[in-house]
Amino acid sequence: MMRFATLMKHPADWMTGKNANNEVVITSRIRLARNLNDLSFPGWATKAQRIELLELMRPKVEALKVMKNGFSHELSELEAIQKQVLVERHLISREQAARGQGSAAVVDRGQRLSLMINEEDHLRMQSIRAGLDLRGAHKLLGKVDDELEQELEFAFDSELGYLTACPTNLGTGMRASAMLHLPALVLTEQIGQVLQAVNKIGLAVRGIFGEGTESLGHLFQISNQSTLGESEEDIISRLERVVNQIQTHETNARLKMLEDEPNQLSDKIGRAYGMLSYATMFDSKEAFAHISLLRMGAAMGYFSDGVMQICDSMMMDIQPAHLQLHAGTELDPNQRDQIRAEILRGRLQSLDAPATSISNDHSAGGEDSTGNLNFENE
């Protein structure tokens, strides 16, 4: 099995946006919740029961073909910083990081697939892909679900579907989500209108780490709220349609900024580049905001190829636990802010300054992004 250090050295393709169209839709994720029949949910189980279930389930998860040479660790054996790094990489949830004995994470070598044992449910399986690829993530996870269903008896009711610890996951037990980068909608003050329209049709909008977290770097996670009474295909199709529409609105907002206020746009991107290149202290929020503008500039042609991938890598590496892992010691907030700025300055040394202006050839066919936001009827 893979060691933690090896996992850190080889980030997944989806973490760096390699070979993917991810200018607006950064990642797609499918998550399935499953429980074993006639056993207490983890939140109600005793420590002995959780350990017993882990010993039953973990070998079967590790034996999956896709998990060959993967990473498998009991959470109680990992240091607090290591667990937080896994959260920052979206490989485990914040809830699972807080669990004690009897909880484990099993991750495939490419880090596209992560299975959490004894999180809120006995098994939480997730697949992450770069760009808008909900169907690719679903296909991969479907194979794993089918394989495990041959080995384990999942709790299932003919009327309610898969039984889960939280009633909102009843039915398919599936959460489909996409992480979107929406700086232009934020800067043009259209984001409220867009998110309101999304909420109206029963989709949830959350921050970078899901429920209860804020948006950093203009990143928003959009997912289905209900899993009962809809098929997996229906859930994916609806989310796909809405995400495509938001992507169009964001693209049009960028083009409109370029058309109406080209000097102000290049100024914002240039200032972000200057701050990241020379500042000596950055908290997470400010750093993410500047990297977000650089990322948008890269997508619009202000930088040479490859800068968007550098931005994605920086967003991962400047998070608190990653910084402390990099330093090899626990850091107070001031120390983190200094090291964060140092890393950013180092990464930007090799980058040329952004272009002061770019052509607007692509905007000719673009419609005004302030148009119809009624996703339900489009």
UniProtKB/TrEMBL annotation:
Entry binding sites for ATP: 27-31, 90, 124, 175-179, 206-211
Residue span, Phosphagen kinase C-terminal domain: 24-253
Keywords linked to the UniProt accession: Allosteric enzyme, ATP-binding, Kinase, Nucleotide-binding, Transferase
Molecular functions per Gene Ontology: protein arginine kinase activity
EC top class, as a word: transferase
Region (Disordered): 352-378
Activity-regulation annotation: Appears to be allosterically activated by the binding of pArg-containing polypeptides to the pArg-binding pocket localized in the C-terminal domain of McsB.
Catalytic activity, as annotated: L-arginyl-[protein] + ATP = N(omega)-phospho-L-arginyl-[protein] + ADP + H(+)
UniProt-listed Enzyme Commission number(s): 2.7.14.1
UniProt xrefs under Gene3D superfamilies: Glutamine synthetase/guanido kinase, catalytic domain (3.30.590.10)
Family annotation (SUPFAM superfamilies): Glutamine synthetase/guanido kinase
A family per Pfam: ATP-gua_Ptrans
Biased composition (Polar residues): 369-378
UniProt short sequence motif RDXXRA motif of the pArg binding pocket involved in allosteric regulation, positions renumbered to this chain: 336-341
Job of this protein: Catalyzes the specific phosphorylation of arginine residues in proteins.
HAMAP family according to UniProt: Prot_Arg_kinase
Family named by the database record: Belongs to the ATP:guanido phosphotransferase family.
Name of the featured protein: Protein-arginine kinase
Organism: Rubritalea spongiae
